[in-house]
């Protein structure tokens, strides 16, 4: 603590020394008074003045280059400087600050009574030690009791399972991009997990399966959040106490802790978000030395982190947006700098395009390439994808298959909806229930391959068997009137009822469909293929003239009901229990061309026709990329809350209204409950309001042209600039959720919470400093600052001590019981522990 | 005093004849043959029923927007003496004699007609030339889609009038006043008018919020400049800010509330949408529930007979119900049940919905004298009125939701299944001072004493054995507040009969009378507002629905009406020349602005400062207006129609002459270029006139065209023009 404030002092002193150097012209003597700090009485005067004079003789346009040349200070000597180098070299402060830092360094170095080298070294060592301490504490809290509970918690059942799929090379479908799950799979693989655990449901014991590797990997990434936030805040505010406060808030937040300890995507996502934020901030502070090595390093690191964030979840788009806004502002500023030639600006632009657009895109695409390469076997996700896509999965019946190319009468086919994730036209031996249209056989779409997806294509007017070898092959052509007869399951003895197998025709009539009331119902009707004229459909190929043959897989076809003129389609709505939660099939009277009413033929069996190989259909990589994105987006928007589900609303989140149960229900279970540390979260909430208030007061004062004393101006710059950036991050990671229609959970707020904690750190530190400044006498002021920060640190630590059972798990009575470890801590009725 | 006699009395009239002429032409184009067709056209069928409700003072709930729009239309009906007796059931139905078609359509038509001179004034206030202003007005005049939309009983033209034009115009007037005479009378007038117009716009459709935000944003930027103006004193700046806050924030809120106040004052009778509202709200309407609940005792006491309504009301509003039948011994999927009496939620009023609140410590089912009110935290039993079995739950899986407990009315089968029929009453919305269970007002939860399960409506329909009524379960893990676990007492009376037979008779008789129950306006307002926002209609498809992308290039149209015999028809179909050139103007504007901005950043000033400011203000208002009225539709999930684009279109029309004048003034370098450009503009305008004239039969629907002519009008394949086969 002590050494921290020492360092601060130095930084502050130098800032003031440098301030006049930036603004040539007469200076008010008033500002100089600020420099007299008791600790360093004679520090600034002559040396910094000298530095200033040198500067002023340089024409403003070339100042930057001059400064760059100066960066490794030639004058300063020996160890102290080189000790400091790593920090300065890597994250040079922003242009304005850079000057001052130099001055300070020079000042210190040249000062006749230079504060002993030892103290400088001590200071730098202290700086590293603090960072190490923060990191260590973070790792210690995250890895403590990592192995408990030894059963599946909450969404581990999904992400653990998906990790296993990677290990087993089984293709699956998920709404998130693959990077996160790939990393989990990799961690599992490296730590000796063999992919055999089933991850069936939360609560299943892991037993002998090795799960620590995967949890440890997530915890490892989650632990880095704290040092990242620490460094970000340090860079934004130049204040150790702000950084420490932020680090404490995050270390001692039970929510972040819980979320980092399990096999989830969130720690990975947050790791990349914070890494992107940190490298963006670092790269901003290198702005005075463009195209230097650290500049390139941080810029490309930003790009890499962005790719990572987007590769884990689409929420990564928000941080991309933030970096994008920052870059645009940056470029706008450079473009307005008339001392830079257009060529230089062009170079800047190209560098950013390369590092922030091309690089992330390439990496992102690469993750998908790996994803497709690794998952080569057919698995549970096949049905979500198009027929052509499935042809490349080994084990899928389309893989290396060869089928007849053109559709002919008598062919047995499966018909797949062209819309992603709708599935195959399906019928089964169950009737629509009473009161829902006509009581005839159900027709649905079904995502999985099944015998009941098979249909026979027949002529509308004859019922003779077209497969009879005496008939010539007759191809189905665009515009033909056909009948689709359901091919019944080959009679297996497992059926309990042994009745005569009948096959029904695809049929529609003027009854309203079960869910989409404005459409007509589609049923299976008739006995052994004999029905009525409502079974006739005209088959049409989209965008095609009459008379052409219909190709398997390639042709996009529509079925138009002859009598009512409606089009066969699937509404994509899920039928209730009676329909086995398959999707509704309707006949829509609206002739608008949507993907819902376009189908293609996938399987095709016709012994009379020659087969062709399907390998020509294999999609190219860009097609696969596009298709998997379409499926993901559809899947994401399909995650709608059901009517009676208890869902979390975005306004619940910042007030920590309700947690998420990770494990355990009863008092005998091992319970883990994801809930933010209320002290931290409510402090964050308060800070946001305070920030808005103080920020607008300062902004209005500045707009009114109030002349702020130098120190206040300095602090308000930190508040407006640094705080503003963090606030923007919070806004971008929080408010878009209000617009989302999909089902939302509490854990979606955590990226925003990271930003809000950083804001809290910056705000309280600045406010306390302002407070201290308001009080004239120095020791008291400093006392207030130290006491304020210390009490906040201790307060969060104590609250963590109170609430830690939430994260590390608790057994025993629920909180209502006075015996419980959490007795008296259930401050809101909606908390459930 | 007599001074005026010494000088001649002079009245100097300053009449802008072009303005008068524009108004006249606007009126002519919108009012001509207004009563034709004398039949229900398209959405008139929708708005008409609400007008009828207003005329009959029947309460309704419409989620499409706040009530001001409907009230404007109803005002027309009121002026025409409409009695509300018309069945609005299908498009194309002939109006009967009692429907004053002319006055019903008059207000939207007037709004549409006045938009024309309004456009003229806006462009003038933006400091563009008289010619540009005339251009904007003439484009508004001949735009077919605007004509169609304003000649019918629809809201869009009123909306466009209020928010696009009136709000923007008055803000501009105010802003121009600001420069020379702040705090003058006209300054106040225009400032207040801005606020009023904004609130009217929001009051017509929620869409209006977007323009309101735009106006607020522009005002905020101007206010920010004002703060930075150091020639003004602090007090003066404060006064400026205060005046703006009052006019642009307070007045709209107050007016918005006022619309609802008038709405609720006007509609005091119960009607078809009652069921959606809470019991308390229904009780405040005349008829309906109020007739039943009048005179009920307020406080529920031990021995009270009550019906319990679920607060959530989804999928349908329903009441706790039980009947003689028992749960089937074995369900279809092989699970077993307790085989006790079914408890369900039933969406209709029924004698089986009555329950008696019993004190577990006593054996009587009547209210003692004095009545002992039930309080928060009391232990109660709920006894079903007709079967006298008490509400019970136990550790048996519910029929459809196996994770929850079954709720039954307990029958003692003498097997090892004891009665667990004690419930603890929790009043969710209890006040700080009182914790008595009140009829209608209190929302209560029943927490089971043995298992701490909560009585809940699962929302699932039971199969045939349960008569497709809704399932009731005991929810063990109840997280937070949810409407499905909360109930309120709707009908209530003190039980008086000891004997079961008498009690049955008592239950069958209607409840007794008197004392009205009033709900405060704010409570009614907030409930109504909440329901309007929460109501979701799921019809997501319509023959003429379209997507926002189709609007910009006019790839779609809407057939509004077809003459029953001839092929005269009305379409919502824009003047394609104007639509396309509007979009082009927008693109040109954005590109030019970007170009200028970049150049200014490099310190190259192409435009003089005042021309630049003019260009920016016009762009922010017109292009910004277009953006806020168009882009949000991409985020909306409801059914969209072409007419949703009309507000955005008017902004494009305003932008068109601005861009044209800018090109002529600043980009044409020689006089010759300027002349050529003017000639081109004239040619372009005449082509727009020609198109407008060609499409006129589809706009007014007054002329029956032959199939051949109709086919010739189908310029785009995606246009849906109706052609009779014979």
TrEMBL record, chain B:
Membrane spanning residue stretches? 9-28, 68-88, 100-120, 126-147, 154-175, 187-204, 209-227, 247-268, 572-592, 612-633, 640-660
Name of the protein this chain belongs to: Dolichyl-phosphate-mannose--protein mannosyltransferase
- Name its cellular compartments: Endoplasmic reticulum membrane
Annotated membrane topology is: Multi-pass membrane protein
Q: What is its EC number?
A: 2.4.1.109
Please name the Pfam families in this protein's record: MIR (PF02815), PMT (PF02366), PMT_4TMC (PF16192)
- Entry's family note: Belongs to the glycosyltransferase 39 family.
Write down the chemical reaction(s) this protein catalyses.
Answer: a di-trans,poly-cis-dolichyl beta-D-mannosyl phosphate + L-seryl-[protein] = 3-O-(alpha-D-mannosyl)-L-seryl-[protein] + a di-trans,poly-cis-dolichyl phosphate + H(+); a di-trans,poly-cis-dolichyl beta-D-mannosyl phosphate + L-threonyl-[protein] = 3-O-(alpha-D-mannosyl)-L-threonyl-[protein] + a di-trans,poly-cis-dolichyl phosphate + H(+)
Q: What keywords is this UniProt entry annotated with?
A: Endoplasmic reticulum, Glycosyltransferase, Membrane, Repeat, Transferase, Transmembrane, Transmembrane helix
Pathway involvement of the protein, from the record: Protein modification; protein glycosylation
Q: Which GO terms describe its cellular component?
A: endoplasmic reticulum membrane
List the CDD domains hit by this protein, alphabetically.
beta-trefoil_MIR_POMT1 (cd23281)
Q: Could you confirm whether the keyword Transferase appears in this record?
A: yes
Q: What taxonomic ancestry is recorded?
A: Eukaryota, Metazoa, Chordata, Craniata, Vertebrata
Q: Does the keyword Amino-acid biosynthesis apply?
A: no
């Amino acid at each position: 603590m002590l050494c921290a404030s020492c360092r601060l002092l130095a930084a502050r002193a130098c800032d003031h020394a440098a301030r006049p150097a930036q603004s040539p012209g007469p200076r008010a003597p008033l500002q100089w008074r600020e420099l007299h700090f008791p600790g360093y009485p004679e520090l600034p005067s002559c040396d910094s003045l000298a530095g200033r004079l040198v500067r002023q003789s340089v024409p403003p346009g070339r100042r930057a280059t001059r400064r760059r040349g100066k960066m490794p200070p030639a004058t300063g000597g020996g160890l102290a400087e080189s000790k400091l180098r790593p920090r300065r070299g890597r994250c040079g402060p922003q242009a304005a600050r850079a000057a001052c830092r130099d001055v300070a360094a020079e000042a210190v170095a040249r000062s006749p009574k230079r504060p002993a080298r030892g103290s400088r070294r001590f200071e730098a060592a202290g700086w590293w030690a603090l960072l190490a301490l923060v990191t260590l504490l973070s790792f210690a809290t995250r890895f403590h009791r990592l192995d408990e509970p030894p059963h599946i918690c909450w969404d581990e059942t999904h992400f653990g399972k998906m990790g296993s799929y990677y290990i087993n090379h089984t293709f699956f479908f998920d709404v998130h991009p693959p990077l996160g799950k790939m990393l989990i799979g990799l961690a599992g693989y490296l730590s000796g997990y063999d992919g055999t655990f089933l991850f069936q449901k939360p609560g299943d014991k892991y037993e002998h399966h090795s799960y620590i590797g995967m949890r440890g990997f997530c915890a490892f990434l989650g632990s880095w959040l704290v040092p990242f936030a620490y460094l970000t805040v340090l860079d934004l505010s130049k204040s150790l106490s702000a950084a420490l406060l932020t680090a404490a808030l995050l270390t001692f937040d039970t929510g972040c802790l819980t979320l980092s300890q399990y096999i989830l995507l969130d720690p990975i996502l947050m790791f990349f978000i914070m890494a992107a934020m940190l490298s963006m901030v670092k790269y901003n502070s290198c702005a005075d030395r463009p195209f230097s090595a650290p500049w390139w390093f941080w810029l490309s690191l930003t790009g890499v982190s962005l790719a990572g964030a987007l590769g884990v979840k689409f929420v990564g788009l928000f941080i991309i947006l933030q970096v994008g806004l920052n870059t645009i502002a940056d470029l706008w500023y450079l473009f307005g700098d008339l001392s830079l030639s257009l060529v230089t600006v062009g170079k800047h632009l190209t560098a950013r395009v390369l590092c922030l657009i091309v690089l992330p895109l390439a990496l992102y695409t690469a993750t998908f390439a790996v994803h497709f390469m690794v998952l080569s076997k057919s698995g549970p996700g096949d049905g979500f994808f198009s027929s052509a896509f499935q042809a490349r999965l080994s084990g899928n019946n389309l893989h290396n298959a060869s089928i007849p190319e053109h559709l002919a009468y008598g062919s047995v086919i499966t018909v797949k909806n062209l819309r992603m994730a709708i599935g195959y036209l399906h019928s089964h031996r169950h009737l629509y229930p009473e009161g829902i249209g006509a009581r005839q056989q159900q027709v649905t779409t079904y995502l999985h391959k099944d015998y009941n997806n098979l249909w026979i294509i027949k002529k509308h007017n004859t019922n003779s068997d077209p497969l009879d070898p005496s008939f010539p092959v007759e191809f189905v052509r665009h515009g033909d009137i056909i009948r689709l007869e359901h091919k019944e399951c080959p009679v297996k003895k497992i059926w309990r009822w042994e009745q005569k197998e009948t096959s029904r025709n695809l049929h529609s009539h003027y009854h309203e469909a079960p869910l989409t009331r404005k459409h007509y119902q589609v049923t299976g009707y008739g006995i052994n293929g004999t029905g009525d004229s409502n079974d006739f459909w005209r088959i049409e190929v989209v965008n095609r003239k009459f008379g052409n043959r219909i190709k398997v897989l390639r042709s996009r076809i529509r079925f138009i009901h002859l009598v009512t003129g409606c089009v066969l389609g699937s509404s994509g709505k899920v039928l209730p229990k009676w329909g086995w939660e398959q999707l509704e099939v309707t006949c829509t009277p609206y002739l608008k061309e949507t993907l819902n009413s376009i189908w293609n033929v996938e399987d095709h069996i016709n012994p009379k026709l020659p087969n062709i190989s399907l390998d020509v259909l294999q999609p190219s990589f860009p097609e696969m990329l596009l298709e998997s994105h379409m499926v993901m987006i559809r899947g994401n928007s399909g995650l709608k809350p059901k009517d009676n589900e208890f869902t979390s609303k975005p306004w619940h989140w910042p007030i920590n209204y309700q947690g998420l149960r990770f494990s355990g229900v009863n008092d005998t279970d091992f319970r883990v409950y994801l809930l933010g540390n209320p002290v931290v979260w409510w402090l964050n909430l308060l800070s946001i309001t305070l920030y808005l208030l103080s920020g607008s007061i300062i902004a209005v004062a500045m707009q009114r042209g109030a002349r702020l004393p130098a120190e206040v101006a300095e602090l308000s710059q930190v508040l407006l600039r640094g705080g503003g950036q963090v606030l923007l991050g919070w806004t971008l990671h929080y408010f878009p959720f209000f617009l989302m229609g999909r089902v939302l959970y509490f854990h979606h707020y955590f990226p925003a919470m990271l930003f809000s904690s950083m804001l809290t750190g910056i705000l309280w530190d600045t406010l306390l400093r302002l407070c201290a400044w308001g009080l004239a006498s120095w020791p008291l002021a400093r006392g207030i600052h130290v006491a304020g920060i210390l009490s906040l640190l201790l307060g969060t630590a104590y609250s963590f001590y109170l609430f830690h059972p939430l994260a590390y798990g608790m057994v025993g009575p629920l909180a209502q019981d006075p015996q419980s470890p959490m007795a008296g801590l259930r401050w809101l009725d909606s908390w459930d522990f | 005093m007599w001074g005026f006699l010494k000088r001649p009395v002079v009245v100097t009239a300053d009449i802008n004849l072009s303005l008068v002429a524009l108004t006249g032409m606007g009126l002519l184009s919108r009012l001509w043959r207004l009563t034709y067709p004398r039949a229900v056209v398209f959405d008139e069928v929708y708005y008409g029923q609400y007008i009828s409700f207003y005329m009959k003072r029947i309460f309704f709930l419409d989620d499409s927007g706040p009530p001001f729009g409907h009230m404007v239309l109803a005002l027309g009906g009121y002026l025409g003496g409409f009695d509300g007796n018309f069945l609005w059931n299908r498009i194309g139905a002939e109006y009967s004699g009692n429907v004053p078609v002319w006055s019903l359509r008059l207000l939207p038509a007037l709004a549409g007609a006045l938009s024309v001179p309004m456009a003229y004034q806006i462009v003038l206030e933006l400091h563009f030339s008289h010619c540009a202003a005339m251009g904007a007005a003439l484009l508004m005049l001949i735009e077919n889609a605007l004509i169609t939309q304003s000649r019918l009983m629809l809201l869009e033209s009123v909306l466009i009038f209020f928010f696009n034009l009136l709000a923007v115009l008055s803000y501009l007037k105010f802003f121009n006043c600001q420069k020379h005479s702040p705090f003058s009378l006209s300054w106040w007038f225009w400032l207040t008018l801005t606020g009023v117009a904004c609130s009217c716009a929001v009051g017509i459709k929620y869409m209006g919020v977007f323009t309101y935000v735009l106006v607020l944003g522009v005002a905020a930027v101007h206010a920010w400049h004002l703060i930075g103006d150091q020639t003004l004193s602090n007090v003066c700046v404060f006064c400026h800010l205060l005046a703006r806050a009052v006019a642009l924030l307070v007045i709209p809120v107050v007016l918005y509330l006022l619309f609802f106040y008038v709405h609720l004052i006007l509609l005091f009778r119960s009607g078809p949408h009652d069921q959606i509202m809470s019991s308390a709200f229904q009780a405040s309407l005349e008829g309906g529930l109020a007739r039943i609940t009048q005179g009920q005792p307020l406080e529920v006491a031990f021995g009270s007979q009550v019906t319990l309504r679920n607060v959530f009301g989804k999928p349908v509003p329903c009441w706790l119900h039980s009947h003689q039948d028992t749960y089937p011994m074995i369900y279809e999927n092989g699970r077993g049940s307790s085989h006790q009496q079914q408890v369900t939620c039933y969406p209709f009023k029924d004698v089986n919905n009555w329950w008696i609140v019993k004190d577990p410590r006593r054996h009587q089912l009547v209210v003692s004298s004095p009545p002992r009110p039930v309080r928060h935290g009391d232990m109660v039993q709920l006894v079903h009125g007709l079967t006298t079995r008490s509400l019970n739950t136990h550790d048996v899986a519910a029929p459809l939701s196996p994770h929850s407990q079954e709720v039954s009315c307990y029958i003692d089968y003498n097997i090892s299944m004891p009665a667990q029929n004690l419930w603890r009453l929790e009043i969710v919305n209890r006040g700080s001072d009182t914790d008595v269970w009140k009829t209608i007002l209190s929302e209560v939860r029943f927490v089971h004493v043995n298992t701490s399960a909560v009585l809940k409506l699962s929302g699932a329909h039971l199969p045939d054995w349960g008569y497709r009524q809704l399932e009731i379960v005991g929810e063990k893990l109840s997280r937070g507040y949810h409407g499905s676990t909360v109930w309120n007492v709707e009908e209530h009376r003190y039980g008086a009969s000891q004997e079961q037979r008498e009690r049955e008779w008592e239950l069958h008789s209607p409840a007794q009378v008197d004392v009205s129950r009033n709900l405060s306006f704010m409570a009614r307002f907030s409930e109504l507002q909440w329901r309007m926002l929460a109501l979701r209609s799921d019809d997501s498809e319509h023959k003429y629905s379209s997507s926002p992308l189709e609007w910009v290039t006019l790839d779609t149209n809407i057939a509004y009406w077809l003459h029953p015999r001839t092929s005269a028809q009305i379409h919502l179909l824009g003047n394609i020349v104007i639509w396309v050139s509007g979009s082009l103007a927008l693109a040109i504007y954005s590109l030019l602005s970007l170009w200028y901005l970049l150049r200014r950043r490099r310190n190259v000033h192409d435009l003089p400062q005042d021309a630049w400011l003019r260009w920016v203000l016009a762009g922010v208002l017109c292009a910004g207006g277009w953006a806020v009225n168009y882009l949000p539709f991409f985020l909306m999930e409801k059914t969209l129609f072409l007419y949703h684009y009309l507000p955005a279109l008017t902004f494009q029309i305003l932008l068109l002459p601005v861009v044209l004048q800018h090109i002529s003034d600043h980009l044409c370098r020689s006089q010759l270029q300027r002349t050529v450009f003017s000639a081109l503009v004239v040619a372009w305008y005449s082509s727009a006139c020609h198109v407008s004239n060609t499409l006129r039969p589809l706009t007014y629907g007054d002329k029956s065209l032959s199939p051949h002519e109709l086919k010739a009008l189908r310029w785009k394949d995606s246009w849906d023009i109706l052609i009779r086969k014979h």
